[in-house]
Amino acid sequence: MRNGGKNIKRSSIHIALITDAWEPQVNGVVHSLGQICQILREKGDRITVIHPGLFRTVPCPTYAEIRLALTTPGRVGRMIEDAAPDVVHISTEGPLGRNARHHCLKCGRGFTTSYHTRFPEYVNARFPVPIDWLYAIVRRFHNDGLGCMVATASLRDELSARGFNNLMHWPRGVDPLQFKPIERKACRFRRPVFLNVGRVAVEKNIEAFASLDVPGTKVVVGDGPALQDLKVAFPDVKFLGHKSNAALSRAYAEADVFVFPSLTDTFGNVLLEAMASGLPVAAYPVTGPKDVILDPKAGVLDTDLRRAALAALKLKPEDARAYALTYDWENSARLFRENILRANGLAGTS
Length: 350
Description:
This protein is an alpha/beta fold. It has helices at about 30-40, 75-85, 95-105, 120-125, 130-145, 155-160, 205-210, 225-235, 245-255, 270-275, 290, 305-310, 315-325, 330-345; strands at about 15-20, 45-50, 55-60, 65-70, 85-90, 110-115, 145-150, 165-170, 195, 215-220, 240, 255-260, 280-285, 300. The two termini are about 20 Å apart.
């Protein structure tokens, strides 16, 4: 495959980014892509984003907050070619991603991809479709590209064992100015406060957190299709809904421990946000947490989530923050760009 037949000999590049996840959606994929776009643009690169907001959309089945674009490979292809990018990156496997892939394969244009979401597990949790069938579809999608970016080493190993090729490391970062400890005043909840932040959906396994027998108060920040059912099932848990910006930062900083019950996340940006806010983490030892929480002073991984949460209470907030600051978005953006250049045979462009 090729990069459009171009011989790029300049310091800046033009990236066409195709994504089914974009604002106003609120999730880790949107946040990560937004950070990368901002940093690379500030450094002189041009990024054309093809996203659902440019099309008519319909709600995603079982998840109305996510809008799916109604379009065709021809229209998406024309948008790519009209933009005349140096390289193409397809971030998601949804309608826009599949249409962009179809166009690129048809015209011989190379592209890279990234694996953000355990799509097979998420679909299987909602519909009786065998996971192996779903992985076959997703594997073909990514293997048709020049390279697929993954966030962690264990995810790379898992996907490699399933036949995924050309996997490239792309970690995430955290904003230490937005997420930081604050001077605690009177807390509205009984301490200790155990916090979870994220999409409130079946694949996040929030029931495991909500059902924990721990002292103090359990708090969930976020919105999603499972919110109302969880409110009814766990009346003792404080469900605060979606929060952003300063309100989100304060929600982190006012808590004592961050509990991450998910078994399916590929990374977990919220882990870094929590630690940067001075919250030790309690999580299962699975892909995502076991790659991110490498310092025992920053969090506790245990197959018994209650035991992990109580042990995390004993850790020091300053140690959690110090560890989180080893991750930064500048490095993440640099690796994202280097992966794209290397996959397209343009490693000499810098």
